Amino acid sequence: MSDVNLNSKNEARLQNMNYLILEDDRFSRSLIKTALHQIGIRNSFDADTAIKAIDIIKTKNVDMILLDHEMAGVTGLEFARLVRNGEEGITNTDVPIIIITVDTKEDTVLQAKDIGIQDYLIKPISPLALKKRLMNALK
């Protein structure tokens, strides 16, 4: 099978997945959703709090989480830890997580890796950079 077919297959898989966007800033949520649309992804749920995101994870089929780090209340890393530990009744503990943030501190990046976050994307994001991270998270 050639790389072109493999890429097309992965792109089709990306487009058929359901995404959860957890971002407390409405404008940033909109930008992420727009970037997803620009790469052909239409299936997404969004939440502005960890509580709403947990409800979505428990009631919907979520295939990947796009997560802000710097949020009021529960931070992105704390939320990712909740997911990985199966807290709050979450059963899909191995769902791929990509953190989208302005935080580039080495400590934050290392913590994200230790928690099991698949990739790290620095704001502002581009559709191409987002697509690359989504493809990486599928591996």
Quick summary of this structure?
It contains six helices and five strands, in the order H-E-H-E-H-E-H-E-H-E-H.
Distinctive features:
disordered N terminus; alpha/beta; globular; 5-stranded parallel beta sheet; 139 residues; 50% helix
Tell me about this structure.
The chain has 139 residues and is an alpha/beta fold. The chain has a single domain (3-138), classed as Rossmann fold, CATH 3.40.50.2300. The chain has 6 helices and 5 strands. It has helices at residues 3-16, 26-38, 50-59, 76-85, 106-115, 127-138; strands at 19-22, 44-47, 64-68, 97-101, 119-122. Strands 2-1-3-4-5 form a 5-stranded parallel β-sheet, sandwiched between helices. α5 links the parallel β4 and β5 (119-122). The model is unreliable at 1-6 (pLDDT under 50).
Explain the layout of strands and helices:
Layout: H1 3-16, E1 19-22, H2 26-38, E2 44-47, H3 50-59, E3 64-68, H4 76-85, E4 97-101, H5 106-115, E5 119-122, H6 127-138
Parallel strand pairs: 1-2, 1-3, 3-4, 4-5
Specify the number of helices: 6
CATH architecture: 3-Layer(aba) Sandwich
Can you identify the CATH superfamily? Response regulator
Estimated radius of gyration = 14 Å
**Biggest sheet overview:** 5 strands, parallel
Overall average pLDDT: 91
Q: Under the CATH scheme, which class? A: Alpha Beta
CATH topology: Rossmann fold
Give the uncertain stretches in residue-range form. 1-6
Task: Return the domain count.
Answer: 1
Helix and strand run: HEHEHEHEHEH
The strand count comes to 5
The helical percent reads: 40-55%
Strand order of the largest sheet: 2-1-3-4-5
How much of the sequence lies in strands comes to 15-25%
**By helix and strand content, what is the structural category?**
alpha/beta
The quaternary structure here is single chain
Shape: globular
| N→C terminal distance | 17 Å
